Amino acid sequence: MALAEFVDSFDMAATNVDRYASLAEEPELSRDPKLDALAGAIAEYLAKQYRLGQVPSWASGPSRRLDQPWFTATSPTDGMREYLTYSSPAEFASRNIFTEERPLRRARSELTYESSTPK
Asked: pLDDT digits over 90-111, tens only?
């Protein structure tokens, strides 16, 4: 729930300066390595998708990476693992997180992946 709210508020920010500001401060570690790595992947992914000019430095910390692969699909089959490995954005795959091609898509998102500039 909190992730969906964050993505919505990020998408609705008035400017890229406001968007970056929402990513700049490092969130506290959660004691769940998957969530901690996911936070780093999301920060890098959004910074690059919205061409914010920089990725927060905290997103690359060692606590933002997983030692073992995590496939986000529930009970993935071998075929699903192969698909997720192939389709995962680099920001996620580099952290050993394997997910769909557009992991943060939201019905309300102002960013269209076909356009070159966010609104």
From this structure: 999 999 999 988 887 765 555 5
Identify how many contiguous H helices and E strands the chain contains and give both numbers: 5, 2
First-residue to last-residue Cα distance in the chain: 25
CA angle 115, 9, 6 (to 5 degrees): 105
What's the sign of the alpha-carbon dihedral 14, 114, 54, 40?
positive
3 state SS of 105: coil
Count Cα neighbours of 23 within 13 Å in the Cβ-side half-sphere. 29
Residues ≥6 apart with Cβ < 8 Å to 108:
8, 11, 12
**pTM for this model (two decimals):** 0.82
Tokens of 6: 């964050």
Among candidates 32, 60, 35, which has minimal Cα distance to 45?
60
